[in-house]
Amino acid sequence: MSADVLNTPSGTALLIGASRGLGHAMAAEFLRKGWHVVGTIRESGGRTKLHDLADEFDGRLEIETVDICEPDQVAALRDRLSGRAFDIVFVNAGVTNNPAETIAEVTTDEFIRVMVTNALSPMRVLESLEPFVPATGLIGVMSSGQGSISNNETGQREVYRGSKAALNMFMRSFAARHAATSRAMVLMAPGWVRTELGGPDGRLSIEESVPSLVNVLLARRGTPGLTYVDYLGRTVPW
What we know:
Layout: H1 3-6, E1 12-16, H2 21-32, E2 36-41, H3 49-56, E3 61-65, H4 71-80, E4 88-91, H5 108-129, E5 138-142, H6 158-177, E6 184-189, H7 206-220, E7 225-230
Parallel strand pairs: 1-2, 1-4, 2-3, 4-5, 5-6, 6-7
């Protein structure tokens, strides 16, 4: 990564799903780079790691509450943020299911839960918040290398894979509808990271993924159009 990227002037990032895992680590990385961060948690009332981060970076981290699967809460968040501008809006929220469960075995309720959380709800958030991103800004969402249809040669994690492939398709449609904008748009594949969602067998630590991931996002700013890349900036095949 070039020195110019590492010295990118700070701005304001809105991170949806920042209470733990990759989202929390992204918030910490942006804060260390001098950015102001608005990070969301799903439920109010309980203390999270994001609250500890807010104490550490006094005045530069705001905490908002939203469950992205609840349209009324997304609308309320939009209203609370009305009039603000964000250099980066990035949606990190997502879930997984039993990785051994095939599409023939998954219940309808479980299929709906994963698809709504991983594909429908992130796009609803982006549709709602994209007016807050200026022409020089970036809109991003956490995808996965497992959302690549071309790279699926092993099967497994079928419902999760399908949800991320659907997310990728919806994001391509979003980008097509906003083709005239100069904003950057990114589908990010963070690698298989050892988090609560990724599990203990992940090949990467958070420290090996997130700092580079954030630098890739910063490097994409000012480049119009949609890219599907991994945490090292490598293009992921659709």
